[in-house]
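Researcher: Next sequence.
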Amino acid sequence: MINSMVERLAARLQQQPDDVEGWTRLGRSYGVLNQPAKAREAYARAVKLRPDDIGLKQGYAEAIIGAAGDDATAPPAEATALFRQILAAEPKNQMALWYVGLAEADSGHKEVARDLWSRLLAELPANAPGRDEVEQRLAALKTGAAK
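Model: Next structure:
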């Protein structure tokens, strides 16, 4: 039933390609259905229609990462570029701080990664689910274990 609803939405968007909300819903739906490549395409259409929307950019960047699969050590360059734009608009955006930090660490820019992850740590509550990983990554940068 859900698949048929998503298919109908996709078909409608072929007739109404300027419906940014529809493309956004389609991207979210494909994400829930674990179809990251299709989610990426839908978010790309939405961002093209509303290029200054930070929420759409974040959804698009997440879809790009999802479509890249689990083998990537750092986010794809296209996702990193979107997260850099998000960070410029929202300097405390936790997801952007994390992913740009990953890209910087992967590129060997330890000081930049340390700064980003330190800023992220300052934003995370003490019991936040990802806090331990951020602390571990920061510690690894200090010991030289991370790129």
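Model: The CA atoms of residues 84 and 100 lie 7 Å apart. The chain has a mean pLDDT of 94.
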